[in-house]
Write a structure and sequence with these properties.
Oligomer: single chain
Order of helices and strands: EEEHEEEH
Shape: globular
CATH topology: NE0471 N-terminal domain-like
Structural class: alpha+beta
Largest sheet: 3 strands, antiparallel
Number of helices: 2
Number of strands: 6
Radius of gyration: 12 Å
Helix content: 10-25%
Distance between the termini: 29 Å
Length: 83
Amino acid sequence: MKLIKFTHQKGYQFILFFENGQSKECGLKELIGKHVSLQQIKTAQINTEWGCLEFNDGMVDIAPKTLYHYACGINHPINDKVA
């Protein structure tokens, strides 16, 4: 499920738009916080070939399937943590 558009809200918060027409607002800190600082958030861009979200000129990327599952809370290890 490719990412086709995004809007950066604040901090690690984004609205993500996928090719199936769904849009999801989610915080990406747990997913990218160790690799992308708040100062680097502005480097976010979409790799149009792969449909992934990239940061730091592609040095950090999130595969579209991972991003979609994370945004939707589907079978993702971070979302499956036991409290």
